[in-house]
Design a protein that fits this description.
Blueprint: E1 42-43, E2 49-56, E3 61-68, E4 72-79, E5 83-89, E6 91-94, E7 100-102, E8 106-109, E9 113-119, E10 126-133, E11 136-139, E12 145-149, H1 151-164
Antiparallel strand pairs: 1-2, 2-3, 3-10, 4-9, 4-11, 5-8, 5-10, 6-7, 6-9, 11-12
């Protein structure tokens, strides 16, 4: 139950009884998602880390906070599906585009886009909330495929990191929906 209302007009409205349908899974609630606790961020590349927030192995989708504490790079990649991003702090962009995202900016990436994600030097770490559907297809400098990274690779990477830092590999399973 959330905190009790004091003066809000809806304070006497009761919660819906039995709000979940029989086969519904519980929500994921994560307080302070863009936390400073670096143990929760899984190294994605040498300069960029990811904090998983929600993972759907059956839909090949995940949501995360991508973070770079200084200049960072996520390898060149291609998306066969759409991606959504919301910038929390810092500054980032794609070498292939003419915009630079800062706090409060929203980005919709259309299916069929290849790009090179970079984080800029900034007084605040780059933190962006991403919703990723489908695999990332790693590209070489000519834009040719050199590998594939999907939700199962992401899960394995997260499990390995969380086991290594003492959180435990099973933590990732709590994010599955």
């Amino acid at each position: 139950m959330p905190e009790l209302a004091k003066s809000e007009f809806w304070k006497d409205i009761p919660a819906i009884p039995n709000c979940f349908k029989p086969d519904a899974k519980p929500e994921v609630y994560i307080s302070n998602a863009p936390t400073e606790d670096e143990k929760l961020y899984v190294p994605f590349t040498e300069t960029v880390s990811s904090r998983p927030l929600w993972i759907s192995p059956t839909e090949n989708r995940w949501c995360d906070i991508l973070m770079a504490k200084s200049a960072g790079l996520v390898n060149r990649h291609y998306h066969p599906h759409e991606v959504f991003a919301y910038t929390i702090s810092g500054k980032w962009g794609y070498l292939e585009h003419d915009w630079t995202a800062t706090a409060g900016d929203f980005v919709y990436e259309t299916p069929g886009e290849g790009h090179t994600l970079v984080a800029y030097e900034h007084e605040e770490p780059m933190r962006a909330f991403f919703i990723v559907k489908g695999p990332l297809i790693w590209l070489d400098e000519k834009g040719e495929t050199e590998g594939i990274f999907d939700v199962h690779d992401y899960i394995a990477m997260c499990r390995e990191h969380y086991e290594k830092v003492g959180i435990g590999a099973a933590y990732v399973d709590t994010l599955f929906r």
